[in-house]
Amino acid sequence: MLMKIATWNVNSVNVRVPHLVEWARREQPDVICLQETKCVDENFPLPIVNELGYDAEFFGQKSYNGVAILSKHAMSDVQKGFADDTDESPKRLIAATVKGVRIVNTYIPNGTELGTDKFAFKLDWLQRLRHFFDAGCDTADDVLLCGDFNVAMEDEDVWSVPHWQGKLHFTLPERAAMHYVKQWGFDDAFRVKNGDAKQFSWWNYREGAWQKNQGLRIDYIWTSPGLTAKCTSCVIDTSTRGLEKPSDHAPVIAEFAV
User: Cα 208 vs. chain centroid, distance in angstroms?
Assistant: First the structure.
């Protein structure tokens, strides 16, 4: 039996409802992890999601941030945010267990230029994410980390290394911090299944980036070793990026024999 798990930064769930409905009906993922939902919980489009056949857990914030997990199967052990977060903390992490897979959905901070408070916050947040896995997960279990990482990990993940070298999303400190998270025991499911393919999941709205395919791969599905062994495919679905008024991100979809 295959289990299909997708991650998608929708860049406002209410604005993209028509795209989400059309895409979910076509692809029929078992689990959809959304980032940048940009709505408080009471405004989450739950009736529409339920009509599609999904239950939902969401953790929202007005105008910015926000994450959600939609699932056709029962969710348990739901966690919203880090254990030491406060009510004022950005809403960037939600986790749940579905059919024995611990799914952690993240919208990792964007940050700004090196040396700024926001850049330091991003690096600190990634340290906390690694501690989250150290304290609460086991590499022997089926664990999946996904979301908008706001970091391009490898040279193949940017359209031009010279253009992006030293710029936000591709700086050495960001990549090192993200590799530290990966060293918990994760594999990059897309790389495992597609080798060094140069494909992207995000394209700037400006400068004709989509039309020129000048993008970044910053949306990932990472898996613990046992879950990697069960992965049968991992693809980036670029079809949604060509729609009218699309999200600037494309969904990433992985299938597992569970």
Answer: 24
Unique residue bearing structure tokens 């929202």: 60
Average pLDDT over residues 174-192: 98
CATH code of the domain containing 155:
3.60.10.10
d(CA 96, CA 102): 6
Q: Residue 145: enclosing H or E segment and its boundaries?
A: strand 143-148
Compute CA distances 103 → 93, 129, 132, 138, whole Å: 11, 13, 13, 13
Task: Tell me what pLDDT residue 75 has.
Answer: 98
Q: What is the pLDDT of residues 93-143, one digit of tens each?
A: 999 999 999 999 999 999 988 889 999 999 999 999 999 999 999 999 999
- Which are the catalytic amino acids? 107, 148
Q: Which of 108, 59, 110 lies closest to 87, judged by CA?
A: 59
Domain total of the chain: 1
The per-residue pLDDT for 113 is 80
